[in-house]
Amino acid sequence: MAEALRGGGAASGSIERMRVLPEAVGTARAAAEELGVAVGQIANSLVFETDGAPLLVLASGAHRVDTDTLAATLGIGSIRRADPKFVRAATGQVIGGVAPVGHPSRLRTVVDTALAGYPEVWAAGGIPHAVFPTTYHELLAVTGGTAAAVAGGG
User: What is the pTM of this model?
Assistant: First the structure.
């Protein structure tokens, strides 16, 4: 994971501060509590399926993705939540630990603009127990992602 982050231009400070938590955290709230940060600082890595292709959405843990709004923003017909088998095939990682990078091939990625409101955000490190600190701008850079509001109404 560190190599994929470095290759994408991530700051070494983010990589060196990767943490392996004692237990997997299944929700943004649990991750925020474990890290002592606001739930909105957690960048949930959510994989969706759009006409058979994967779409990675890095969403603030403070809200849910409005797939209808996001589909309209991206100009695609529909977005639906991917099943675990699809996620594993697209990312090489399991649900609960999907990192922003390190996939078999680059994924189309959307980075939630709500994450820009935090000087530091935390993203999954490729396994359910690992997280690393980063920034909104770094997530955009390392993923080649598109900035978009992903929650309904804004």
Answer: 0.88
Q: Beta partners for 80?
A: 49
Contact 117, 13 (CB under 8 A): no
Number of neighbours of residue 73 by Cβ within 10 angstroms: 14
Contact assessment for residue 52 and residue 85, using Cβ atoms and an 8 Å cutoff: no
- Give residue 28's pLDDT: 86
Helices and strands of the chain, counted as H and E runs: 6, 8
Strands 146-148 and 108-112: parallel
Task: Give pLDDT tens digits for 51-65.
Answer: 889 999 999 999 899
Q: Which of 75, 66, 145 is nearest to 103 (CA)?
A: 145
Q: What DSSP element (H or E) covers 54?
A: strand 53-60
